[in-house]
User: What shape does this take?
Amino acid sequence: MSLGAADIQRRVSAELVTLQQRLDNPRLWSVAARLMTLYAKTFPGSDGAKAVHWYRMAAKAADASDDLDTRVWVRGRAAIALGYEGAALPVADVFADQAMAISDRPSLGLVNALFGKAHAAALRGDHTAARRLLAEGRRSPSAPSTPGTSRRSTSRAPWSRCSPGGTY
Assistant: This one.
């Protein structure tokens, strides 16, 4: 099943309204943060301000959850989305830096933060930093496996996330 951005926005909005009534539970702040992150992703790169607004709200919700994994994941997801789309490179860097400061424990969120920061560096023309960040992300135990190898996991990012726009 495939949904368009407007359908996703409508469905996520309804879930957030329902969830808002139950936010006395910190675990539900984690759910809200992830839903807000999904909502942010529905805005195209040309509308980066709206996406940034929702990613910032998602980060605040993640902080309210007191869940380190959610806090890192939301920021890493924001960093890779904004970095890949080139929508708001300085904001992508901020989210990536925040994710890396929250926890250095290997996770998909941390890998997304590293790759998002690598995308942003590459788009700015800082190929040295892009290569360094890409190598660091690839060394992570949560990094995607190279196609054709035995290192496979459903918790790892897809291999396509490792190539921020070409060779450096």
